[in-house]
Structures are given as C-alpha cells and as structure tokens.
Amino acid sequence: MNRFRLADSDLVMASLTTAAPLAAIGEHVELFTVLEMEPRILLVDGVELNRRVVKATLNAIGAQFIEAMRPSEAYQILKNERIDLVICDMFLPEQNGMEFCRVLKANRATQLLPVLMLTSVQGSEHEVEGLTSGADEYLLQPAHPSVLKARVLSMLRHKAALDSLDEVEGILFTLAQAVEERDKCTSDHCRRLSYFSVELGIRLGLGRNDLLALHRGGYLHDIGKIGIPDSILNKAGELTDDEWRIMRSHVIRGEEICRPMKSLEHVLPIVRHHHEKWDGTGYPDRLKGEEIPLLARILQIADVFDALSSERSYKKALTMDQACRQLEKEAKAGWRDPELVPLFVNMLENEDDESKMSRNLRAIAGVVNES
User: Fold this and answer.
1) To which CATH superfamily is domain 183-368 assigned?
2) N or C: which end of the chain has fewer CB within 10 A?
3) Active-site entry in 225, 277, 316, 356
C-alpha cells in the first residue's frame, strides 16, 4: 500500500467528468494527500554517531529510520524496501556520496527519490558538487535542528505530491477500463489497441516517449465516453444527429480529463484527434493529412482495425483478412493515412516475419474474432 493516498478516491472519480475539479487535482495535488503510514527515511553514513544525531533531531516528525553504513547496504535496502527519503553523508565508505547519488538518479526505480546530502566540510565548491551529482538538498553540519526538520518535511511533502500524482494517473486508467467494461463488446479493446499501436510505433522507429504515449493512449483514448449515456453508447441502431453530436464530444471531454496530468501531455493529441480523417472530414477539428498528429494516426488505424474485427452491438465481427481489406479501402477512399495502413497490414499478415512480437500480434488479431 502506498503511504500517501487520495483523501477520498470515490469523490475524485465522481468529479472526473468535469474539468474544474480535475484542474484542482493537477494544480493543488498536495491538498488531496493524507498521511496513511509513517515516512521511511534511509540514513547512509559510515559513522554511527552521525546517524544517531540525525535520528534524535528528527525524532519528532514520527518517521521510521533504516540505517546503512555503506552504499552497498543502501542499494540492497532500496531494492527490497519502500523508502521515502534518503539522507546521506558526502563522504562514505566504498564510494563517496556524490557517486552514490548519481547511481540513484540514474536508476529509473530511484530517480525520483529525494536525496538530502549532509557534510561537515565547508566550501561552496562542495555544495555545488553535491547538488550537481543529483542531490535535491544540501546541508552543512551541524545544522540547526529546526532547519534540518524543515528541509526533511519539505522533501517528504514533495514526495507525497509525486506519489499522489501517480495515484491520480492510476485512477484515470481505472476509469478508462470502467468505460470499456460498460460495453461487453469492447472487452480487452484497450489492451489490444495499446499492443497494436506500440508495435507499429516500433516499426516506425519511434522513441521511448512516443511509444509510452501510444501505450497510454491505447487505454485512455476513449476515457471521455464516461460522460456519454449508455442509451447512446450501446445503441443497436443508427444514431440520430443529436446523438452523434453527443458521441463526438467524447474526444473533447477526454482531453479535458487528461489535461491536468503533466505526465499525459504527449497523450492529449491522441485522445483529441484519433477520430480525424486523412481527407479532413473527421472530428473534432477537421484536420487534414499530416496536420493530424502522427501518434493519433497510428492509434486510429489500430482502433479502426479492432472495431472492424470485433463484434459490436450494431454489427458482426470481420475476419482479420476482411478487416485488413476494409482498412485498405478506407485508405484509398481518403479516410486513413495511405502510408501507415500498408505498414500496419503488413505487420499483421507478413508470415516471413518470425519475431515474437509479430507472432503475438497475429495471435491476438485471430483471437478477436473468437472472443
């Protein structure tokens, strides 16, 4: 269980259909955090007396202290235990504090973990060296007890904010899956979209950030449908003009829901533009050709293929071959990117490609018709 959680997750989820409460979550996330468990602080110092002094000074904040004499012990603790803050001395056995800090900041699992570096050696050059190594704060010892407490509490609050933002993002993904589950015909749709999109992105040589955006976009692209009535979302017949206007609003709603999350910045174009068409007849902005963001075009093709090859309330499923042929027709008609569609189809149909990813893709595409 995370130490910090949203004060009322149900209330937050209920507010996700409007933009204002979500903006509050994004801009004032610290207001939504509560202390659920005592913070865990890792003290890394080769001198026992130094560790005792720090623990005595910080005793009033109610933290749990885990101690390590050398970096090798600290790495093992960080690998196996939850830590909220690291306090280390500049000079340690095995390797100095600067190198220890660089290792933490280079590791994805610990790069956001706040580090407070302490030293009794005076000189601005040491402070510069400590901070450039990645330490978040630097204090000259002996520091006044109130100063040390204030720095530590500030760093723990910042960690709480980061933890809460992660949890808000988790709630969005849970909400997106709840939207998917409202329609039995779209079961596992988001997972397949994420898989198809990322594989096509890999084939195009996209970077890690773009691939991550495609993965997230697969799950979040239709999150705006949380505000669409079931009577429209699951209607068996054709939608009326008014119903279509409501349905099309889901891309705007979805963008508004995701916008406050800075980590979803690259996902926003996918959410907003995955229903645009190559010839400019799509929605919401009637973008044309390469005006449509590349990531949105990639996910759109995966989305259309999955819709064609899945049974819906208004149609039967096409076979993989039929769905691919329909995609090609839509590309010729000017609806889909004429360069991306052949790449996507080849990715599914190329029997000469024996990569594990491609075999999995063909398996998933085949199972869609059987589910």
Assistant:
1) Hypothetical protein af1432 (1.10.3210.10)
2) N
3) 225
